[in-house]
Write a structure and sequence with these properties.
This protein is an all-alpha fold. The chain contains 4 helices and no strands. The two termini are 33 Å apart.
Length: 83
């Protein structure tokens, strides 16, 4: 079952997407007034949406993974990925 909180977050996110990009902050200021957690959740979803639509999401994951793996040191035959 979908929680009421997720339903509210999704509704605000969908409504924010309907706003012009330069109007979203004002919309969210009014819609999320007093609920900073909701605002952070919706902002994170909006940021992820922008990255996903721009194709940057996969590029960022690959770059970050390559940097992480590039910093690994060999430690013999039983080497492990860092935690």
């Amino acid at each position: 079952m979908i929680s009421d909180r997720w339903t509210e977050t999704r509704e605000v996110f969908d409504a924010a997407l309907d706003q012009a990009p330069d109007q979203r902050d004002a919309f969210l200021d009014g819609r999320c007034a007093g609920d900073e957690a909701l605002r952070r959740e919706v902002d994170a979803l909006l940021q992820a949406d922008v990255l996903a639509r721009g194709g940057a999401f996969i590029q960022d994951v690959v770059r970050d993974s390559a940097q992480h793996l590039g910093g690994m040191r060999e430690s013999g035959p039983n080497r492990r990925l860092p935690r």
